[in-house]
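In the previous lecture we treated proteins in isolation. Real proteins rarely work alone, and many bind small molecules. This record shows how such a complex is specified: first the sequence, then the SMILES for zinc ion.
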Amino acid sequence: MPIYNFQCDDCQAVFDLRATFQEKERGLSPVCPQCQGQHAHQPISAGWLLGGRSAANVASTPAWGCSPGGGCCG
Ligand SMILES: [Zn+2]
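The predicted 3D structure, ligand included, written as tokens:
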């Protein structure tokens, strides 16, 4: 079951919410565990940033020697 990261709009607390994709489709209604506020949004997950950084570095380095204008990059 995926874990969704939420940040409370009222007290800025960050918390996780486990929900199935079906629940996500129907719309999540996260409740802040700290202030019981029901106004939370999904911040950009630190996990996604950390996980994507190395992949982005790899992707930004052309391993096949392709140069702009060479015809292979469009
Ligand atoms: Zn809160």
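Summary for your notes: The CA atoms of residues 4 and 24 lie 9 Å apart. The helical segments are 21-26, 46-60.
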